[in-house]
Amino acid sequence: MKAYTLPARAECAALVTVPVRRGMGLVEPLLRLVDGKGWIAGGFARWCCSPSPEPAPPEDVDVFFASYLDVLNTSDRLLERGAKIVKEVPYFVQLDVSEVFPGFGLPAVQLIKPNQRADGTVAWGPTKEDVVRQIDLTVCRVALDGPGLSTATADPSFEDDELRKVLRFRRIKFPPAEMRHAFKYAAKGYTLSLTDATELLDDWAKRDPSERDELSHGDSDRGGY
Question: Which CATH number fits domain 16-170: 2.40.100.10, 3.30.460.10, 1.10.3720.10, 3.20.20.70?
Answer without folding.
Answer: 3.30.460.10
